[in-house]
Amino acid sequence: MQTIIINSQKGGSGKTMLSVHISTQAERDGDGPVYLIDTDPQGTLTQWHNLREAETPQRVELPFAAIGQGLTKLEERGARYCFVDTAPSRGEDVLSLLRLADLVIVPVQPSPSDIWSAAATFQLLKAEHIPFVFVMMRTKVNASITAQSVALLSKFGEVAPTFVADRTAYAASMTDGRTAQELLAKGPAAQEMTALWKNIKACIPTQAKRKEVANG
Ligand SMILES: Nc1ncnc2c1ncn2[C@@H]1O[C@H](COP(=O)(O)OP(=O)(O)OP(=O)(O)O)[C@@H](O)[C@H]1O
Ligand SMILES: [Mg+2]
Question: How are strands ordered across the β-sheet holding 34-38?
Fold first, then answer.
């Protein structure tokens, strides 16, 4: 099983939106069983899941301190992916959690404050040799700040080639427990999520690669 944690210190960067949309996309692409864990006391992901009619992705409730053991149990149960949504807290608070990740997704909006916050998250992940990828969020057509942001972030680490555009469907679909792909199966958001999930899978390092990085 691969554990994918969505984290950034910045509030409102799109962590929950990505957790929901990417986990659903993984199921749609036949990569299930996919599980979700909400570690944010705000409980936004849990609220979305409670409204949801579809049976997948499944959500499990675990106390923060028991997540490591819980992940082992999910793997034994045959889970292929587990997505963990996190609170917008300082990196040190979630460090023990981040160490469990096969990949951390860091959503970043093209704005100076998001970039500064991403730089802090990067320092932490880099120091701990935790694999990560930046995902550009809420991008607008022809905005030069997106290209500038990508150029800056690329100095720290990989930026997923698929950008997530600013689309009302992403927010609107969640009001009744769905996702944008489920509102419009062949729409632009669906195409974006299909491409992004492929990008993310390609970023998950193999066990051998992780050992190599950890050993310097
Ligand atoms: N690509 C997008 N297009 C339009 N709206 C978006 C997009 N991404 C996120 N949003 C909206 O932005 C708001 C913040 O997103 P979200 O709740 O996912 O952020 P978050 O990082 O989980 O926030 P928090 O740090 O408070 O947990 C939500 O209303 C969400 O629907
Ligand atoms: Mg959230």
Answer: 58-59, 34-38, 81-85, 2-6, 103-108, 132-136
The one-digit pLDDT tens for each residue of the chain (216 residues) are 999 999 999 999 999 999 999 999 999 999 999 999 999 999 999 999 999 999 999 999 999 889 999 999 999 999 999 999 999 987 667 899 999 999 999 999 999 999 999 998 999 999 999 999 999 999 998 889 999 999 999 999 999 999 999 999 999 999 999 999 999 999 999 999 999 999 999 999 987 777 777 776
Distance of CA 198 from the midpoint of ligand 2 (Å): 23
Ligand 1 centre to CA of 150 (Å) is 19
Near ion ligand 2, which residues have CB within 5 Å?
15-16, 44
- Considering only CA atoms, give the Rg of the chain: 16
d(CA 48, CA 165): 21
The three-class DSSP label of residue 72 is helix
Instruction: For the chain, list the domains and their CATH numbers.
Output: 2-210 (3.40.50.300)
Which atom in ligand 1 lies closest to the alpha carbon of residue 8? Answer: 21
Predicted TM-score (pTM) of this structure: 0.96
Pocket lined around ligand 1, Cβ cut-off 6 Å: 11-17, 40, 42, 44, 88, 137-138, 164, 166-167, 170-171
